[in-house]
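Before a computer can learn anything about folding, someone has to put a protein's shape into writing. The outcome of that step, for a single protein, is printed below:
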Amino acid sequence: MAEPFVSFISLLLKTQPDYALAHPRQKPFNDTLRQAMRKRITVILQRSRPTPTTDTPRLQRFPSIYTDYLESKLMNSANSEEEYSNPRDLEVRIHYLEKEVKELWYRLRHISDRLSALPDTLITQILLYLPTKDSIKTNFLSKRFKDLWLQVPGLEMHSHELAAIQNFIATFLQINRGSRLQKFKITYNGRNVCSHGISEFIAGVINRGVQQLDVGSSTLKRPLTNDLVPVNIYKSNTLVSLKLANVGMQNPPEFGVSLPCLKTVHLEDITTKDPLIVEKLISGCPVLEDLTVFRAFDDNVPVLRVRSLSLKRFCVKFSRARTIHGKEYAVEVDAPGLKYLNFRDNLSDKVVAKNLSSLFKIDIDTQFSFGMSTTITVQIKQAIISDFLKGVSGVRHMIISQPTLKILYAWMNNGAFTKFRNLTRLEASFCTVLLQRLPHFLEGCPKLKHLTLYLLYLKDLEPENLELTVVPQCLLCTLECVEVKEVATVEKAGKKRARYIKKTKVSKHKKKIWIELVRYILENSLVLKKLVLCFSSATNSVLEISEALPTFTIRSPGFRLHYLEKEVKEQWYRLRDMRFSDRISALPDTLITQILLYLPTKESIKTSFLSKRFKDLWLQVPGLELHSHEPAAIKNFIATFLQINRGSRLQRFKITYNGRNVCLHGTSEFIAGVINRGVQQLDVGSSTLKRPLTNDLVPVNIYKSNTLVSLKLANVGMQNPPEFGVSLPCLKTVHLEDITTKDPLIVEKLISGCPVLEDLTVFRAFDDNVPVLRVISLSLKRFCVKFSRARTIHGKEYAVEVDAPGLKYMNFRDDLSDKVVVKNLSSLFKVDIDTQFGTSTLQVKKAIICDFLKGIPSVRHMIISQPTLEVLYSCMKHGPFTKFCNLTRLEASFCTVLLQTLPYFLQGCPKLKHLTLHLLYLKDSEPANLELTVVPQCLLCTLECVEVNEVATVEKAGKKRARYIKRTKVSKHKKKIWTELVRYILENSLVLKKLVLCFSSVTNSVLEISEALPTFTIRSPGCEIFNHLTSI
């Protein structure tokens, strides 16, 4: 623990900026002052913590490293030499700094513990989302993370001096030369870039198949050359995302551009010699979906031409920060699949938008080069604006700024205004002067349903009165919701969503105009459902409107008024965000119903009370999950639910009942109905052991379902399959628990009709009429069988036959089957055995066990119970034991008597690497001594890890993993035997790396073994011993 913490402090010291860099405008402290500060810190630390007594050189250097870090942190944050002159203030500051370091350390340790269980490939993918500087810091979390950052398939660096990291980048790329990089991001400050080989690095990662490339300057300084981006970028077959900022691009090659995978492009203030570079780039991207262009006045691209069939999102920004006098710019957009357009271009004289039939949302903040000295006449400018608005007239959601509205208002006086016939949602910013034109603007939105008005506080000429006489069609027919929000701002008028800031005074005349606006909306809206007024507490307009409200004639009968001041609104949003409903409200109905599908129907119904968004949404859930003590009580509910969803295909149908009289309530008919409607998951059964009074609860059409994927039946009766057989082409999971049937071959027929069956679980019943459970399947991957001795029929014999070449996991818990046959299990990886192999004689069992073990020789992971080992031990006296040549992991439960046979069992596991022993506390006769003389091959060559766990249990011996329960006494003789077991393992294991001892505090065997440990001869030099006390 101490060594990683020292490394962590060393890393913090390295990452702490130098004072001269952190405070370039201040006079740095001299070395004398810094040395004096170190001495004062050392005195404070010596008083609060003891000096380490260990001889480890790294730990001996810890006080010096820690002092340097604290001194650097304090000096970098100090503003004057006298700031820490008071010793008490300095001590308090050091205390808080130490607290911050510890919290950061524990937070990183907590994260590492959660991630340590993940595979390397997944951890490196997580680290890919961090800057390389932060991923390097994980190197000090634990040994698990040592050098793991070197395997991250990406590099993200930011530096003020690229020369300082040139060698680092070259080394990183050299180490990862055999892998394909996913991400390469370099952000720099400065202009002299190419001299440091960045262009060569970019060319190299492109050749190695990088997917995300992000290169640029965090300032407005471009590099001194225009060829920073290499020419091979135009021929990348793997590039998915490209972001370039303040860089120069070479001209595309003569053979054109080919970027078949590029979906996202972000170009910000680039320079080039080719005026058609953006057009060529877009033409070479057949799957481009997202394009963002921040234009520069000197980018040498007078016409930005965007033509793409695949483009879905386009953002353009061109501000008036700097211009070239007399130069004209233009934008042309032709994208039939475009769904979102963000247009913030104030310099382009010509704007053309066409073929935007899929456009859903547009955000406009432009002045159409108004006020710029251009040669375009008023008539041409009017035609340009008119053509642009006609090009986006099919939009459904529009956000428009006050400067844009002001320009449109100027042109509206000279001609007709474009109609937006599909527009249903509008967000617009109005100053007081422009409010007079609001009805004329709304006349162009005949289907408008939601209107948001931002009232701007600008230094403009206020009208004497607000005379709104025109009533547009949307107010009479469609407008349902209006939001009026005060945006008091002193920022530039071009900000369409100015931040709410406090104002101490708003003119009474302006308030009067806003009240008239509210009156106009209320007295002319016939279908209005909701009006939201959001004013600041300083303006206090809400109270004045409330006083005037009785004088208004409200035309809409279902209208509701909401008052939200700024502070109230913020608190509302905070509370609303804490509710689960608001986190998923933005999702589409189809996705919400899929989420609700994982809840029982009773719980999904409760969501209807969260908000209007969820009202009756549970009725659209493509599934039903009910549990009832009285099926008759929910009969009508099920019938109504199925009737409402009669046009849709159900994914899930789960009915759990208590009782026996089920068929009288139509459950069988409901099951038949959902099967005919293409249900995918069917789960029917009783939560008790009571079966229904009839054997035909499950209808016969279940054997011919083309959609069923999962089938679970518990304590039900099944009809015989039809003569034409079973056909379940999609069924992958089957769970049969205590079923009854008249056909003894029903399971075999069911399996034969499932060509893609992967998971089969069978809980057998003594009266299920299936004496032989035959499992023959080529696709089966997981098989579980359970057959307990709870109840039996005297004289009846049972058998199990398994033939599954693709089986990977088998859980075998069958105590009643006298005959067990397993064959063709070449793919078996893991087996869990808890069986006594029936009630036959020992000689009969010997042959059955031998054939069973020979059928699973390829298994690699085995879990075996104490009763099974006891039966095997009895048979070992009568012949040799089967070898498991591929077994690498074993978990076995041993009572004290059986420990004597452990070496003989391990002789059959020559490649064993991990052994877990569960020591059971049973009432059996203990051996006088534990004499382990045989040393199996695995101890000498392969065994690397051993875990010894005490399992004190008074439960039935058949429980291979008995729960840890409290015991008040364990015999000293048993302790002695367990100590001898540990001695045997340590003195005979040559390659053992880890021994874990887990005993209860009651038994206290760990302490006794720890006392005896110095007397053991540990043969493995790298062995680590871990003692764990558990509360059994």
Q: What stands out?
A: The two ends are 28 Å apart (CA to CA).
